[in-house]
Design brief:
Number of domains: 1
Distance between the termini: 30 Å
Number of strands: 10
Order of helices and strands: HHEHEEEHHHHEHEEEEEHH
Shape: globular
Strand order of the largest sheet: 2-3-4-1-5-10-7-6
Helix content: 25-40%
Length: 302
Amino acid sequence: MHFDEKKPIDIVLNDLFAHYQKHVSDVNKITNALIKTGVIESERDIVNDHIAFRTLGVKHLGIASFEKIFLALGYVKKDYFHFEGKKLDAYWYAPQNPLHPRIFVSELRVDDLGKEAQDIIYKYTAKITKDPVDDLDLNNGKELAAFLQKPLWDLPSSTAYKTLLAESEYAAWVIYNRYYLNHYTISIHELKDGYNTLEEFNQFLESIGIKLNNAGGKIKISEDGLLKQSSTVSALYNATFSDGQVLEIAGSYVEFAERKVLPEFQQLNKDQIKAEHRRDGFETNNADKIFESTYSTQIKGS
């Protein structure tokens, strides 16, 4: 994913991906294997379906704050999702430019957690007394990019992290990783024949040693059968906490999406099919299982 233009949105997307690519080894492993096998000529040939962020649902933060950035960059707010078991809400946002990825932003329903977990989150976010996005120049791409890498609260202690992890792995992930890019998504249907279905692509991934999230099956399928998604399992990395303790924690991962042609456009020839002819949006049940790519059951499991 790389954009040559110097518009604010391009600066933000390029910067996000540069940090993400540097820290998520599977990105380069997959890209290099695709180039080596002749599926793509360069990383620029990969179409990014969407990117995702995680937030905390507390005053001055959460979706209400975070979305201001991408709404200012021309994105349009779309469907709402609720994940009861994981205590999350989410929305997705459609880009103005079809070459840009969709955005998926989720938010932890902090008040639905137990008191101990709530107290930890409110302790770390207490210093945030106004929406930090309101102080940004939303037309300045470099300023927005820097903000998305900036820690908004103090580094947590290992004790706080472990307490959150015991109740909500999502909460633990956010308290340490903050607005770090959670994942980017390769559009499988845009690849050449032999690699452009998720079944074929997953075989390719496993042949190069990529571990897939098997929560709900390795391929998550929407009720209408038109959206298929898979994802890698997050790698662990050593994180140093405020008390000097070093723990192995979950980082980010890579997702893969196959959007099938809508029934009303089935008669189109392959060379006539455009993005608007394919299934759009997201699916609650699919996303629910994709979240588990950073969960210990997946990382330490099969």
